Amino acid sequence: MKKTGAQILIESLLKEKVEVVFGIPGGVFLPTFDVLYDSPLRFILTRHEQGAAHMAEGYSRASGRIGVCFATSGPGATNLVTGLANANMDSIPMIAITAQVATNLIGNDAFQEADITGITRPVTKHNYLVKDVRDLARTIKEAFYIAQTGRPGPVLIDLPVDVQKAECEFSYPAQVDIRSYRPNYQGHPGQIKKAADLINQAQKPVLYIGGGVITSGAHKEIMALAEKAQLPVIWTLMGIGAFPSAHDLSLGMVGMHGTYSANHATQKSDLIIAVGARFDDRVTGRLDKFAPGAKVIHVDIDPTSISKNIKVDVPIVGDARIIVGELVKLVAKKTKMTDWHKQIEIWKKDFPLTYKKDSKLRAQYVIEQICEITKGNGIITTEVGQNQMWSTQFFKYKTPRSFISSGGLGTMGYGFPAAIGAKVACPDRVVFDIAGDGSIQMNIQELATAVQNKIPVKVAILNNGYLGMVRQWQQLFYKRRYSGTVLSSGNPDFVKVAEAYGAVGIRVEKKSDVRAAIQKAIKIDKPVFLDFKIESEENVFPMVPAGAALDEILQGVA
Amino acid sequence: MRHAISVLVENKAGVLARIANLFSARGYNIDSLAVGETEDPTISRMTIIVRGDERILEQIEKQLNKLVDVIRVSDFLETEHLERDLILIKVTADKNSRLEIMQIVDIFRAKIVDVGSNSVIIEMTGNEEKIKAFVEIVKPFGIKEMVRTGIVAMGRGNK
Ligand SMILES: Cc1ncc(C[n+]2csc(CCOP(=O)(O)OP(=O)(O)O)c2C)c(N)n1
Ligand SMILES: [Mg+2]
């Protein structure tokens, strides 16, 4: 039977087991929205397309499935760009479908026309403009395949309005075969053997894990490897949750706001085993002083990540779960506590993450309480800034896919829509966005989405009246000249904002009220804004200043 | 270092833009680019001549390989290979100079493909040096216009 392009799109999404789509319609998307109207797909109308993109990403990250967003041509499509760039930087699978003006108008500066495949080429893993309805089903099949395999990423399909209306026979392909795209999953056995030998000989190893471990589902293998070879474990922001923070072998996050022990262990190590991490500049600090005595094993699905920043001694291209699984078989079992482990214990004991424990309301305390009250089982999303870094430090993550944060792009306004997407994916889990008062205002309109669709996410606004992280840099490196970073007098009353949207707002001004407020927020079956009036000039420590070596750490006050 | 990079790609819209992006995003200029169908009409071959830092070029080549529409990338830097470029050059030629030009054309095994009242069009193929030498020699006669196809490259032998 013949189907229209719009029907083919919706049926193909159903074939891909898509349950929910986030987005906003528009003139040239009408044929599809008409089909959507009585399809079993759940449509969540957002208030901004950036929100839709981050929701789709949050959905992917929380569930391990794939989020989908829709935007109309022109401004709808361009509003997706930040969301696509974010997913691309963090290697998160996502499908964006944009409507386009009719094929005969493309390139004519038609009303609401934007060359979205051109605009998004550098910020997507791949994209398509479908000009013939007969190509549509195959294109969708390919897009889902490309987005979710190899190093995952966002794929965009641009669909002109006439193609949505055109008809053809529909059959959804069972398989894809793209001769120019064949990701390699099996690691080279010779390289794996070499890596195992290096691990067996190392005196001062660290296992450095990133988002790739979560993507490939390698956390069990990582645990087995760490425990068998007694490897101290450090992680990147994207790797948070891939290894339990409370484990004896855990040192914490490495990098600019990493722990003292993770940074020192990295610098003094003789072997770094990197898995699914890419030696980002926020991790390495000053490159020419990075881990001077260390050999490097690098396991990554993406050959372009290897030897990009750091020269690698044993590269292994392939899937983290498969390769680490092989390594577990080959490494020697170690039991005894070496000098290296003793040294690390001393670092951990002497330089723990801490903050001033007085009677003032401090951000770190708020996050610790959220962790305690949710027993570490909540899903935490973050915005960007101090709120994000404290969230990496003071919540003890236990499982993968529990921490969702904009890593590579550092997008303010990410956390709230990502939380909504995560809650849609995991309705049974408590989802908190730990937000800054600046960031939350970048996508605050999505509160309407949460209210309308009954998505009871909780937002802990760490309200310091500043673009805090930038202010911190100004305090430390620009003589406290707070240029362009003061929010306070312009901040709205967040409690009233919440109420205006039909959500619940709770203001917390005293440390002693924090726990009760969090407990209350969790009990309420509605979206809640918690407005924590925290110490305004608190800083994130430890800190490695930009351009310094990883062990040149500012400790700050404790 | 000068690199001749040969890229086998799907013969599709948007592929050239993706490839060009990888260079332009780093502020790299492509010296020469030639694109054409291969023996399989669904596959095109691009030959890219580019100069730049070794590490950055290595990274670009890896990223080329990563593009979904790229089938294979080879760099001829350490491979014995042939390079050819085709040039059309319109040179001022009056009665007095025409004979001399014809002699030069002969020596370079070039061809005169069009004769006008006061100019000729010469076609020549060769590698970069040969073309450069030829252009230098005909320059004094007066070059009115010049166009090149871009360099194409192929590895020698059975490979
Ligand atoms: C979209 C965007 N614009 C600007 C920045 C630069 N930036 C990084 S952190 C930050 C301050 C964030 O302020 P707030 O959300 O209040 O968080 P805080 O640091 O105070 O916790 C800014 C402006 C960014 N990361 N993203
Ligand atoms: Mg703030």
Can you describe what's shown?
The complex is a heterodimer of chains A (about 550) and B (about 160). Chain A is an alpha/beta fold. Chain A has 3 domains: about 1-170, Thiamin diphosphate (ThDP)-binding fold, Pyr/PP domains (Rossmann fold); about 190-350, 3-Layer(aba) Sandwich (Rossmann fold); about 365-535, Thiamin diphosphate (ThDP)-binding fold, Pyr/PP domains (Rossmann fold). A 6-stranded parallel beta sheet of chain A has the order 3-2-4-5-7-6, sandwiched between helices. Chain A has a 6-stranded parallel beta sheet with strand order 11-10-9-12-13-14, sandwiched between helices. In chain A, helix 16 packs across helix 22 (about 515-525). Chain B has about 160 residues and is α+β, with helices and mostly antiparallel strands. Chain B has 2 domains: about 1-75, ACT domain (Alpha-Beta Plaits), CATH 3.30.70.260; about 80-155, Alpha-Beta Plaits (2-Layer Sandwich). In chain B, strands 5, 6, 7, 8 and 9 form a 5-stranded antiparallel beta sheet that branches. Chain B has a 4-stranded antiparallel beta sheet with strand order 2-3-1-4, with helices on one face. In chain B, a hairpin with a 3-residue loop joins strand 6 (about 110-115) and strand 7 (about 120-125). The mean pLDDT of chain B is about 95. The interface of A and B includes residues 122, 125, 146 and 303 of A. Thiamine diphosphate (TPP) binds near residues 386, 410, 436 and 464 of chain A.
Short description:
The complex is a heterodimer of chains A (558) and B (159). By secondary structure, chain A is α/β, with parallel strands linked by helices. Chain A is built from 22 helices and 20 strands.
